[in-house]
UniProtKB/TrEMBL annotation:
GO process terms (BP): transmembrane transport
Organism in which the protein naturally occurs: Lichenicola cladoniae
Any Pfam family: OmpW
Domain of life: Bacteria
Name of the protein described by the UniProt record: OmpW family protein
Length: 222
């Protein structure tokens, strides 16, 4: 990620946090008492996330390695508390990534761009659910669908990526700011491998994307 991209990402995260803090401050007037987490309730969170593919163990039939770009995007999740400590969380987000191959026999190749939709379901354990500060850990499964893929013409006329499934681990914390409102920080490590077919299969590539997803946002518990 370039210096400019990092600065833009930081500015976006700062704007989101500022806006969410203003909403919570306004809600504080009518809903001052913290309520914690309890069985049978739902929590909705909105986060700003950074998606950082690790691009490990990649290769192409022309040699070299594959690289997918970092991205910043919004994320929405819904949690249901089975008990005070245990919750199921469904995470939804979509990001667009630029894909390229470097050090091939053709040199650096811009493959194109693709959107990925990786719904993720995790089972979480929440420590100290009745306190203001409540960290949690989680583990689950991610399914990644690639769609609206655009090849980088004229070198690449056609490209497609396989749907992939892999495990995900998670760590995060909620802070009960006031009433039903929570501040949230979260990090997930997804283990995802995918294969690409370029120009009808004339060129093949594989990569362990293994994205790290870090986010910050706000939650509301019903």
């Amino acid at each position: 990620m370039s210096c400019r991209s990092v600065l833009l990402s930081m500015a976006l995260l700062s704007a989101v946090i500022t806006g969410l803090s203003s909403l919570v401050h306004a809600a504080d007037l009518n809903d001052p008492a913290p309520i914690g987490k309890h069985a049978g309730t739902f929590m909705v969170r909105l986060r700003a996330i950074g998606v950082l593919p690790e691009n490990l163990s990649s290769a192409t039939s022309l040699g070299g390695s594959v690289h997918a770009s970092n991205q910043v995007a919004p994320e929405v999740d819904l949690s249901y508390f089975l008990t005070d400590h245990l919750a199921l969380e469904l995470i939804a987000a979509s990001t667009r990534h630029e894909v390229s191959a470097s050090a091939t026999v053709l040199g650096h190749v811009d493959v194109g761009s693709t959107y990925v939709l990786p719904p993720t379901l995790t089972l979480q354990y929440h420590f100290m659910p009745h306190g203001r500060f409540s960290p949690y850990v989680g583990a689950g499964l991610t399914v990644a669908w690639f769609y609206d893929t655009s090849p980088s013409r004229p070198t690449v006329a056609k490209v497609g990526f396989e749907t992939t499934v892999g495990p995900t681990v998670q760590i995060g914390a909620d802070y009960n700011l006031t009433g039903h409102w929570f501040l949230n920080v979260d990090a997930k490590q997804m283990f995802l491998n995918t294969r690409a077919r370029i120009n009808g299969g004339a060129i093949r590539a594989r990569t362990s994307l293994d994205p790290t997803v870090v986010g910050v946002g706000i939650g509301y518990r019903f």
